[in-house]
Amino acid sequence: MSDINICTFTGRLGADPEVKSFQSGGRICNLRMAVGQQWKDKASGERKERTEWVQVTIQNDGLVGVAERFLRKGSRIAISGEFRTRKWQDQNGNDRYSTEIVLSPFGGTLTMLDGKPEGEQQGRARGNDQRNGDDRGGERSTGSWGREPDGSRGGSSWGSGAGGFGDDLDDDIPFITNASAW
């Protein structure tokens, strides 16, 4: 039996997406995603929370375009990709390691959980064309934000905020206080 390397997270972006272009024409996008956990302390009854920061690298050109066009600091997203550890050397020649979730050209998903992006007119995200699955890493395509093309099918659709992730809109947007730590 093969092992499976898939990680799924929901959270909010701690900064605007950082898109890098290469001379070859390829592009990647780096995201910093805050993933929160909340619980009630049994001893004190006090609400506690902890935030973990996840580095996400998007190598799928269609998803890079979606991230660049629609995502901003504070955007609520769900991602699914491969867990990878990268080895690199700092300025002093010391070995360093970074862990990240990679949405590769042939795998990974990005789902916007905030609904219709700001600035979009009624209807379609790109004029009158139908969105294809490549822009979302294989997710189901819908004709307009939050609706099925014929309006008769049930279930969740991209941008509707559905999918089992709570709609707690009172969540504080996480901010990093010491940027030099990254």
UniProtKB/TrEMBL annotation:
InterPro entries: NA-bd_OB-fold (IPR012340), Primosome_PriB/ssb (IPR000424), ssDNA-bd (IPR011344). Residues 152-166 have a biased composition (Gly residues). Pfam families: SSB. Gene3D superfamilies: Nucleic acid-binding proteins. GO terms for cellular component: nucleoid. Residues 108-182 are annotated as: Disordered. One of its GO terms (molecular function) is single-stranded DNA binding. Residues 115-139 have a biased composition (Basic and acidic residues). The keyword Transit peptide does not apply. Keywords: DNA recombination, DNA-binding. GO terms for biological process: DNA recombination; DNA replication. SUPFAM superfamilies: Nucleic acid-binding proteins. CDD domains: SSB_OBF (cd04496). Homotetramer. HAMAP family: SSB. This is Single-stranded DNA-binding protein. The lineage of its organism: Bacteria, Pseudomonadati, Pseudomonadota, Alphaproteobacteria, Sphingomonadales.
